[in-house]
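Page 47, continued from p. 46.
Same chain as before, 337 aa.
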Amino acid sequence: MAPLLQVKNLQTQFFTQDGVVKAVNDISYDLNEGETLGIVGESGSGKSVGVMSIMRLIPMPPGKIVGGEVLFEGRDLLKVSEDEIRSIRGNKIAMIFQDPMTSLNPVIPIGRQISEALELHLGMDKKQARDRTIELLEMVGIPSAADRVGNYPHQFSGGMRQRVMIAMGLSCNPQLLIADEPTTALDVTIQAQIVDLVNRLRNEIGMAVIWITHDLGVVAGLADRVIVMYAGTIVEEASVVELYKNPRHPYTLGLLGSIPRLDEDRPAKLASIEGLPPDLIDYPKGCPFYARCPFRIDQCLEALPPLRAVGPGHRAACIVDVTTAQHTTENPYQDLQ
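Result:
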């Protein structure tokens, strides 16, 4: 069976007065039906730009998708008409954004914001759409949904607004839900509730999920497979179990080292990754992680390392075998495994 989504050699750039920002550089991955894919990396790594490119939501200008394919059910979303992509957005592919207050219209009741999509995409009349809206709000855990359907966004807490956004995303029973750091602005208890909610709804509805985050702790309890991005490229891809058990890229090691561990009698000191990501206008010729990498060798400067298989379903863009290199005395991550 063909994957639900295939991203092939996607490249997105922003043309600014200072130069061309190479935000997404030749990334490729697949997503199967019902699968949850986590995309992780620090700010500026290209996580959000990559999925915004899938939805064709990149502002043009200054942005432009300069290359690649995005095949959804075999159709290239980068080549369909504006009318066709609008019929897919919110219908077959839905997206939840980081801050619901900037995504929800502050002067329209939340019920109307959900029911509008039902009328547009599913052809429901106003009563059918209202009844379905109440069902959706109950599904995502909004108490007294029938009474609150006429409330405005400012009358809900941050966690409840995010639940409204999830209800909106699920309104048309999408095949793919993209969540762009939806728990970042929430406290940890609400984060856990939102993750559990998405997990439950995914199992009930059978949709595929792309979850974008900088928090590997969230990914551990949610994703089937993980992609690690750095400076607009994919540096590692593996199943969630394999990534935590056997990380094969120095950047992934650094990310894992920055997470507190609760499964050790004596918690190890948290590691930090020194330095800053490269300038995406003056993109380096070799490995973009070179300047910050504790395992770097001269060969890393020659060319961008390709993603290569390092195990079943496991790829990493590194020419150094970190499984042996991490035991050297110079390695700041040596106590992490």
